[in-house]
Amino acid sequence: MPKHDMLRKEIDEIDQELMRLFERRMQISEEIAQYKYSRDIAVFDSSREKQVIDKNVALIENQSLKLYGELFIKNLMGLSRKHQNDSINHMKVSHKS
């Protein structure tokens, strides 16, 4: 198998694992949304987000990838916030019915 194909196969395997972890993260995010909704806590917490970003970017050893890691985690957290807000809006609609 050519090296290019082997590298693509490895990327495909990583992507599969990322999607599995993404789905797990979104499921937990939905549980957090339920908790926040039941206690009337805002979805966005800037200090918590800064902590999560800083903690995760610090895990990256390759300095040239830190910016990309920061963008990655910020985008992931944005998707998580969107999912939490959608879940809370769904709960509000369900409670009105």
Broad shape: flat
Q: Quick one: how many beta strands?
A: 0
Count the DSSP helices.
Answer: 3
The Cα radius of gyration reads 17 Å
Nearest-integer average pLDDT: 96
Fold and architecture overview:
The protein has 97 residues and is mainly alpha-helical. Helices cover 81% and strands 0% of the residues. It contains 3 helices and no strands. It has helices at 3-38, 46-57, 66-96. The longest helix is centred in the N-terminal third of the chain and has 36 residues, at 3-38. The protein is flat.
Short structural description:
With 97 residues, the protein is mainly α. The protein has helices spanning 3-38, 46-57, 66-96.
Keywords:
97 residues, mainly alpha, 81% helix
Write the topology of this structure.
Blueprint: H1 3-38, H2 46-57, H3 66-96
Helix pairs in contact: 1-3, 2-3
